[in-house]
Amino acid sequence: MPVKNLFVRHGDKVLILSGKDKGKKGKVIAAEPGAGKVKVEGINIVKKHAKATAKVPQAGIREMEAPLAASKVMVICPACNQPTRIRRERDSDGRGVRVCRRCGESLDK
Protein backbone atom coordinates (compact mmCIF):
# COMPACT_ATOMS: atom_id res chain seq x y z
CA MET A 1 0.00 0.00 0.00
CA PRO A 2 1.61 3.29 -1.04
CA VAL A 3 2.24 6.01 1.51
CA LYS A 4 0.48 9.29 0.71
CA ASN A 5 2.61 11.71 2.74
CA LEU A 6 6.07 10.91 4.01
CA PHE A 7 7.30 12.40 7.27
CA VAL A 8 10.81 12.52 5.76
CA ARG A 9 11.88 15.04 3.12
CA HIS A 10 14.89 15.60 0.89
CA GLY A 11 17.74 17.09 2.95
CA ASP A 12 16.61 15.78 6.37
CA LYS A 13 19.21 14.16 8.62
CA VAL A 14 18.01 10.72 9.72
CA LEU A 15 18.95 7.82 11.99
CA ILE A 16 18.66 4.25 10.65
CA LEU A 17 16.53 2.12 12.99
CA SER A 18 17.04 -1.39 11.60
CA GLY A 19 19.01 -3.47 9.13
CA LYS A 20 22.72 -3.82 8.48
CA ASP A 21 23.27 -0.07 8.87
CA LYS A 22 21.39 0.22 12.19
CA GLY A 23 22.51 3.19 14.29
CA LYS A 24 24.15 5.08 11.41
CA LYS A 25 23.18 8.62 10.49
CA GLY A 26 22.88 10.16 7.06
CA LYS A 27 21.21 12.76 4.88
CA VAL A 28 18.16 11.98 2.72
CA ILE A 29 19.11 12.41 -0.95
CA ALA A 30 15.78 11.26 -2.44
CA ALA A 31 12.28 10.55 -1.18
CA GLU A 32 9.74 8.41 -3.06
CA PRO A 33 6.32 9.02 -1.45
CA GLY A 34 4.46 6.70 -3.83
CA ALA A 35 6.65 3.76 -2.87
CA GLY A 36 7.16 4.82 0.77
CA LYS A 37 10.94 4.70 0.36
CA VAL A 38 13.91 7.02 0.87
CA LYS A 39 17.54 7.03 -0.27
CA VAL A 40 20.06 7.99 2.40
CA GLU A 41 23.58 9.17 1.60
CA GLY A 42 26.14 6.42 2.32
CA ILE A 43 23.52 3.91 3.56
CA ASN A 44 22.31 0.68 1.89
CA ILE A 45 25.10 0.68 -0.72
CA VAL A 46 24.63 -1.83 -3.55
CA LYS A 47 26.87 -2.72 -6.48
CA LYS A 48 25.44 -2.41 -9.97
CA HIS A 49 26.98 -3.65 -13.21
CA ALA A 50 26.72 -0.91 -15.83
CA LYS A 51 27.50 -0.65 -19.53
CA ALA A 52 29.40 2.30 -20.94
CA THR A 53 27.24 5.19 -22.14
CA ALA A 54 27.90 8.55 -23.76
CA LYS A 55 27.52 10.22 -20.36
CA VAL A 56 29.74 7.72 -18.48
CA PRO A 57 32.21 6.14 -20.93
CA GLN A 58 33.76 3.76 -18.39
CA ALA A 59 31.88 0.48 -17.96
CA GLY A 60 32.18 -1.51 -14.75
CA ILE A 61 30.76 -2.07 -11.31
CA ARG A 62 29.31 1.04 -9.69
CA GLU A 63 28.34 1.50 -6.08
CA MET A 64 25.14 3.40 -5.40
CA GLU A 65 22.55 3.95 -2.68
CA ALA A 66 19.45 1.78 -2.90
CA PRO A 67 16.11 2.93 -1.49
CA LEU A 68 14.99 1.65 1.90
CA ALA A 69 11.62 1.77 3.63
CA ALA A 70 10.80 5.13 5.18
CA SER A 71 9.58 3.33 8.30
CA LYS A 72 13.17 2.25 9.00
CA VAL A 73 14.41 5.81 9.52
CA MET A 74 13.79 8.47 12.18
CA VAL A 75 14.29 12.19 11.63
CA ILE A 76 16.96 13.96 13.69
CA CYS A 77 15.79 17.39 14.85
CA PRO A 78 18.26 20.13 13.84
CA ALA A 79 17.43 22.18 16.96
CA CYS A 80 17.87 19.56 19.72
CA ASN A 81 20.03 17.13 17.65
CA GLN A 82 17.98 14.14 18.86
CA PRO A 83 16.05 11.48 16.90
CA THR A 84 12.38 12.38 17.16
CA ARG A 85 8.92 11.61 15.93
CA ILE A 86 7.11 14.21 13.88
CA ARG A 87 3.95 16.10 14.77
CA ARG A 88 2.06 18.13 12.18
CA GLU A 89 0.69 21.55 13.11
CA ARG A 90 -0.68 24.56 11.28
CA ASP A 91 1.30 27.81 11.24
CA SER A 92 -0.14 31.33 11.22
CA ASP A 93 -0.67 31.16 7.42
CA GLY A 94 -2.65 27.91 7.74
CA ARG A 95 0.06 25.80 6.11
CA GLY A 96 0.95 22.45 7.65
CA VAL A 97 4.42 22.26 9.17
CA ARG A 98 6.40 19.42 10.71
CA VAL A 99 7.26 19.92 14.38
CA CYS A 100 9.71 18.08 16.66
CA ARG A 101 7.90 16.22 19.44
CA ARG A 102 10.83 16.64 21.84
CA CYS A 103 11.51 20.38 21.67
CA GLY A 104 8.58 21.77 19.67
CA GLU A 105 10.75 23.45 17.02
CA SER A 106 9.68 23.48 13.38
CA LEU A 107 11.59 21.15 11.06
CA ASP A 108 10.52 23.05 7.94
CA LYS A 109 12.64 26.04 7.08
Describe the structure.
- By secondary structure, the chain is mostly beta strands.
- Helix content is 0%, strand content 39%.
- The chain has no helices and 9 strands.
- It has strands at residues 13-16, 25-32, 37-40, 45-50, 60-65, 68-69, 73-75, 86-90, 96-100.
- It has a 5-stranded antiparallel β-sheet, with no helix packed on it.
- A hairpin with a 4-residue loop joins β2 and β3.
Quick rundown:
This protein has 109 residues and is an all-beta fold. The protein has strands at residues 13-16, 25-32, 37-40, 45-50, 60-65, 68-69, 73-75, 86-90, 96-100.
Key traits:
mainly beta; 0% helix; SH3 type barrels; elongated; five-stranded antiparallel sheet; 109 residues; two-stranded antiparallel ribbon
Number of separate strands: 9
Determine the N-to-C terminus distance: 30 Å
Low-confidence stretches: none
Helix- and strand-based class?
mainly beta
In order across it, which strands form the biggest sheet?
A: 6-3-2-1-7
Count of structural domains: 2
Order of helices and strands: EEEEEEEEE
Q: What are the SSEs and their pairings?
A:
Elements (H helix, E strand, L loop, with lengths): L12 E4 L8 E8 L4 E4 L4 E6 L9 E6 L2 E2 L3 E3 L10 E5 L5 E5 L9
Antiparallel strand pairs: 1-2, 1-7, 2-3, 3-6, 4-5, 8-9
